[in-house]
UniProtKB/TrEMBL annotation:
Source species of the chain: Microlunatus soli
Localization, UniProt: Cell membrane
PANTHER family: AMINO ACID IMPORT ATP-BINDING PROTEIN, GLUTAMATE_ASPARTATE IMPORT ATP-BINDING PROTEIN GLTL
Keyword check for Transcription regulation: no
SUPFAM superfamilies to which the protein is assigned, alphabetical: P-loop containing nucleoside triphosphate hydrolases (SSF52540)
Protein name per the record: ABC-type polar-amino-acid transporter
Amino acid sequence: MTETNPAGGPGDEVLLNSRPTVAVGEPLVVLSDVEKYFGELHVLKNINLSVGRGEVVVVIGPSGSGKSTLCRSINRLETIQSGSITIDGSPLPSEGKELARLRADVGMVFQQFNLFAHKTIVENVTLGPVRVRRKAKTEAHDRAMELLNRVGVGNQADKYPAQLSGGQQQRVAIARALAMDPKVILFDEPTSALDPEMINEVLDVMIKLAEQGMTMIVVTHEMGFARTAANRVVFMADGEILEESDPESFFTDPKSARAKDFLSKILTH
């Protein structure tokens, strides 16, 4: 059944019966007492968050709340001033081969697709597995085609990014992340650069990943996706986690005044 969620806007038409039923396992990503500053600006304040294996955690909140910085800190695109972040029991490395290995294990899908314009779609997807995972080119190519077909763009494999729509390019970016066989995928507002009619095709791919047990941390403004696909919603404001709960509880009975105010605005616009 497809229905438009009243908590969302354009593009929040999602499958309401598709919430993942995958059992959540032991902690895979753990943030403890994390603090982050940009100069004088305190952007992450005492962040404590644990994400279980197979769990889908959606991070929402007003602009400037620290959501994207949180996401980028998990694979060390941003460095933190204090606290700790561990992935599968190992602390984030600071540099070198260990950092490259971490980023292979932690996939990232950005707002902008970040595809290499001079490489074909299939070349974009095979590049990481060949250079970082040291996979044979034929093996990487076969896996890339499998993933491109899985996200619905296998017939675009020999084209260049500029020849694809924004929704298609973002699906390629998801396939590229999956090609590294990551333990977790981070999504930093993956639909914000898309036209409304292209949003659903990306959300549908993400929902399928959730159903298949992929561990996902998703920063998004798509409330329909949050309500449908998340195991847990984390609400941030002013650099802090103010609330976290299952989607139904959060959207029907938020506890903090800040969350109530946030939801009242998006529910009426």
